[in-house]
Design brief:
0% strand, 277 residues, Methane Monooxygenase Hydroxylase, Chain G, domain 1, globular
Length: 277
């Protein structure tokens, strides 16, 4: 059977002085960005795993920021699409751990020394996601102090309400009593849980038909945190599978530190309301 010629179907075949697929995606820059520092076969896997994760996180930040703007403008339906996409992004990030787990402890030790003190703990985009979602641990600014440009981006996030705080302010604008959260002016600190906010979400969940848009928003937020929690859990499992209980390259206690992060709740009242219903 003769091989098909795409040109007969009208496909463009000459790209001299024209934009190609590679040009549009800047693939030369992207594919030249993998620079292993050892001769270990699995270092390429390690680099690509983390680089692609950072690309997905860049998209997550883009979508979370847009969703926050829509919520701020009371345009909830577009925000639902954006938050759904964020959850699916974290599904992709979860699947990536399955690829990394094909690397054994013996294979990792062949290049771990090349990492120096670098660690995913230092990812500014991951920190930005946590800050935007509402986990505002100011101590986590310190690993970025040597980069004023990145520190400025994180500080700008801290100057504005988080995703969850935008949802709470939305409830307040629509007649729900959210207590002190309605009059906050400083957003830098992680907010304290509130009985008034819990009661507001309980009212939403007790009458979904009446409060459908807020009910839908709540479930989109829970979807996001659900996948985010799975990502954290898979991170812990992958690290323990590969390095056991050794300290992390960034100086943390490794698995024990990551297990503490499993206890962090981004949208606490949305989880507690389930017990109240």
């Amino acid at each position: 059977m003769k091989a098909p010629d795409p040109a007969t179907e009208g496909a463009e075949m000459s790209f001299k002085d024209r934009m190609s697929y590679s040009d549009y995606l800047c693939l030369d820059r992207v594919l030249d960005a993998q620079v292993p520092l050892s001769f270990a076969h699995d270092e390429m896997l390690f680099i690509i795993q983390h680089q692609t994760s950072e690309l997905w996180m860049k998209l997550a930040l883009h979508e979370i920021g847009a969703a926050m703007q829509m919520i701020r403008q009371d345009k909830l339906e577009p925000s639902f699409k954006m938050l759904t996409r964020v959850a699916r992004i974290f599904e992709q990030l979860n699947n990536a751990w399955d690829v990394l787990r094909t690397m054994t402890p013996s294979e990792y030790t062949q290049f771990r020394h090349a990492l120096g003190q670098s660690s995913g703990f230092q990812s500014w985009q991951y920190r930005a996601i946590e800050f935007m979602a509402g986990n505002r641990n100011l101590a986590m600014l310190r690993p970025h102090a040597h980069r004023p440009d990145l520190l400025a981006k994180l500080e700008a996030i801290l100057d504005r309400p988080s995703l969850y705080e935008e949802a709470i302010l939305l409830l307040s604008r629509n007649g729900f009593d959210v207590g002190m959260d309605a009059s906050r002016t400083s957003w830098r600190e992680t907010r304290m849980q509130s009985e008034e906010v819990l009661a507001a979400w309980q009212a939403v969940y007790n009458d979904p038909q009446r409060h459908w848009m807020f009910y839908e928003l709540a479930e989109k937020l829970v979807d996001f945190e659900d996948y985010f929690r799975r990502w954290r859990f898979n991170h812990v499992t992958t690290v323990e599978r590969i390095i056991g209980l050794k300290r992390g390259t960034g100086g943390t206690s490794g698995v024990s530190y990551l297990k503490k992060m499993l206890e962090v709740e981004l949208f606490p009242e949305l989880w507690k309301v389930r017990t109240k219903l």
